[in-house]
Amino acid sequence: MSQAVLEPEASAGRGMDLLRFATAGSVDDGKSTLIGRLLYDTKTIFEDQLEAVEVASASRGDEYTNLALLTDGLRAEREQGITIDVAYRYFATPRRKFIIADTPGHIQYTRNMVTGASTADLALILVDARKGLVEQSRRHAFLTSLLRVPHLVLCVNKMDLVDWDKAVYDKIADEFTSFAAKLDAPDLTIIPISALNGDNIASRSDNSPWYEGPSLLHHLEHVHIASDRNLVDVRFPVQYVIRPQSTTVTDYRGYAGQVASGILKPGDEVMVLPSGMTSTIASIDTADGPVDEAFPPMSVTVRLNDEIDISRGDLICRPNNAPAVAQDVEAMVCWMDETAPLRVGGKYTIKHTTRTARTVVRGVQYRLDVNTLHRDEDAGELKLNEIGRVKLRTTVPLLADEYRRNRTTGGFILIDESTNRTVAAGMIIEAH
Amino acid sequence: MSQTKPYRVSHLDALEAESIFVMREVMAEFERPVLLFSGGKDSIVMLRLAEKAFAPARIPFPVMHVDTGHNFPEVLEYRDRRVAGLGLNLVVASVQEAIDAGQVRELPDGTRNRIQTPVLLSAVEKYRFDALFGGARRDEEKARAKERMFSFRDEFGQWDPKNQRPELWSLYNGRHHPGESIRVFPLSNWTELDVWHYIAKEQIPLPDIYYAHDREVVERGGMFYAVNEFIRLRDGETSEVRRVRYRTVGDASQTAAVLSEADTVDKVIDEVAATRITERGATRGDDKVSEAAMEDRKREGYF
Ligand SMILES: Nc1nc2c(ncn2[C@@H]2O[C@H](COP(=O)(O)OP(=O)(O)O)[C@@H](O)[C@H]2O)c(=O)[nH]1
Ligand SMILES: [Mg+2]
Asked: What is the ipTM of this complex?
């Protein structure tokens, strides 16, 4: 194995920022190997883990240390040699801490990819250089754009098996670039790699003198994510009302929550939804004292200058920039339940920001074929892992934005009222 | 809009904000949450986060210690001091009492990790806790890497890894029927190093055993165990005084110390950043049994 080149420095620990990324690829494209490689090259793999993997590899008859065994954590996964569920991995370099959502590739795991992508700043899609783009690569790119993951990286893997042939790489890169353009995909970077041998992972490889871009790790460390956040629209969903019952702190009433978007400052004029009442911010409190401003993803407690009746599920915004107060919602919905399909007339619990309501499905406008993007307008229902445009009516108004503008106030889940399972993820297109 | 400021938060602040969000969600949506507090560093950090989440109010739920009876005295003393300082209610679920009452049976090897589970579950039933905050981190162990932030448990406290609820954005589904419960892991996305950086940043006091000190130990299988009432020398073994510290604090009969000169938080951070052995691998006899030891214990209702 190549020499590890980067080490999480103790001193760097406090100044780093955080990047969350999701990985996707078809079975055997090398996803687990790539993650193992990233962990290895950043010295995140420990000797006892490596030893355990070496023993396990040897007992399976693998010729080399199978780094995939590091990430496949469940018994069934190791037995079947596949990844079933989203696994989370962590590594750090002096610049950044990374959270990887490792999601399996099969179509039956679309829900896992959607789950992993929902919180990702970046999606990393793998293809096998020998096979080129396959149906699944297109699906992964589509899901990335559907979930509005702001950055996309395509890794053309197993370049060692095509003799580092530039023509092979160019063909895949061109094809993918033109497909991504159709999706209104975000910022795209394409990198030729060998996950097994570590080429272009932690540093640029001599095997690809024709490739002028960054190594994967360099790109992950430097990709600009600060401007991905919405700092314009103030959205503060109230989570919990803090009212100390004590003799030392009296008359305190604070609205606790995490800033979804925008910047809040003491003195700002604000509006509370759904009531529409207005007030000004008296202070923004944290356990470490008041702060001058709050922005995503800070968890703070807001106090207002007027006594207004506010409870969990309400939202604080600015009077001239408010989300829709809406009971009719149109959304792209990914169905995640294997026991029953989404049907017109179906009733569910809907969870949207900190607000919970009931909802009924008014219509399925179309089902989308996630491979061809063909719209089937006669579908009428959505089965497990199917995605479609759905009309919902809710019992109480949601305080909602379009998902493309705001991933927090634009996303929701549906919960089955008898089994309590999470059965769908939704991305709002229109709310009124 | 021209921005003069970067409006960035450090990764530690982002992790803190996420954990606080999770704790507030639980408080808003559950009736009887409880925080599992062992006096170990992860639960100590979790308690600090709970303090921050609800300030200036008090932490609005009790804490529970599943006490194996095999304790480090420094840790018990810390536990009691901390709980009293915060004015919290402490529930002790005692494995020893359960053994004495005949509710569980001591295993032939004397280890109590496995028999903690029924004791935990009967306390959950007795107090009707519906949400249990645990300090587990996903970087600790490969089965944990797959577990959700809100981990649904059936009436028997069991985890079904193949039937987990998808967890999207920060929309956590805590719905459950009576008798069922949710284990909540606010530190899911923290690593051992993050925890130590946070302890340094917040200047959180810890039980002394986390820092280098001289202790009489015996070496077994490359690990250094304190010689005390739970671990006695076997024939042919000799003890020696070494400079050690603990990386984790579990059952005192099974938790090993590591050789260390790190007697301050900054030195510990340097040591953790440079170490090449995982926390559990270095200190826990109980996880070495099989590749799926943790997965199996969680299926039975373990933390
Ligand atoms: N030659 C070569 N083999 C690779 C490379 N990356 C992965 N593999 C092999 O491809 C197979 C599947 O890899 P794995 O990481 O399990 O794929 P996953 O299903 O996407 O997680 C394994 O046998 C790997 O060793 C590579 O860059 N070059
Ligand atoms: Mg895999």
From this structure: 0.92
